């Protein structure tokens, strides 16, 4: 199982982030490549992968974040000021369906870092402006010296299972016919298992017992998140919706989930896209 936004081929090169001389040499490398963006959306090359520019095309005023190295060749992304917007826009949806998995992983890292920088321009300790350092993998306050580093927010995403059926739900913002696994942020003082049981009960009124971890995935939209996919054993199949969270929820069989994943005619619902971990979770469940 290879969830979306995983499998980047780049060496993250942590060893050079604090080495000013080594980082300067990378910036001066004529082979350096710069990720092409339209705001925060990726530009797609004619052959279907990410579009990269030569470092010679820069104006010289851009702040660059080091994404990593490939065969010694540095790869950067410019720090742009852009609103994260809706990841379900037609442009980003279309781009992600075209990108190879490795390129999607590179883009996911770039977008997460850019959004983090845009949200941390001021020090959380004293309120003064911060400056980028560590090759773009940190910000430092010019007043109090506080160092800030990118963080990832953990999110549980899960299927409740009862007598050979899985619980899926939809939010009002989903495209018509689309259903997915339930999901929610972990809260302070809570384990993964507790968060899974709490979120399922809060959103659908279903009480669960044992929880099994399946896989995880970085998710670069709305800030950097780590999606932790699980399956939980439900104690009954009675659904009581929290309509502030979900528009609908239903129990589906493996055959129905299999038909949705295959995009078959007459399917009961539309499955999440392949780059979403809910897609990987459904595939795991139907094959279990």
UniProtKB/TrEMBL annotation:
Source species of the chain: Sphingorhabdus contaminans
Superkingdom, natural source: Bacteria
InterPro entries: NAD-cap_RNA_hydrolase_NudC, NADH_PPase-like_N, NudC-like_C, NUDIX_hydrolase-like_dom_sf, NUDIX_hydrolase_CS, NUDIX_hydrolase_dom, Znr_NADH_PPase
Catalytic class of the enzyme: hydrolase
Identification of the protein by name: NAD(+) diphosphatase
Pfam family, one: Zn_ribbon_NUD
Family: Belongs to the Nudix hydrolase family. NudC subfamily.
One of the GO biological process terms: NADP+ catabolic process
Keyword Metal-binding attached: yes
GO MF annotations in UniProt: metal ion binding; NADH pyrophosphatase activity; RNA NAD-cap (NMN-forming) hydrolase activity
EC number per UniProt: 3.6.1.22
Family matches, as SUPFAM superfamilies: Nudix
Reactions listed under catalytic activity: a 5'-end NAD(+)-phospho-ribonucleoside in mRNA + H2O = a 5'-end phospho-adenosine-phospho-ribonucleoside in mRNA + beta-nicotinamide D-ribonucleotide + 2 H(+)
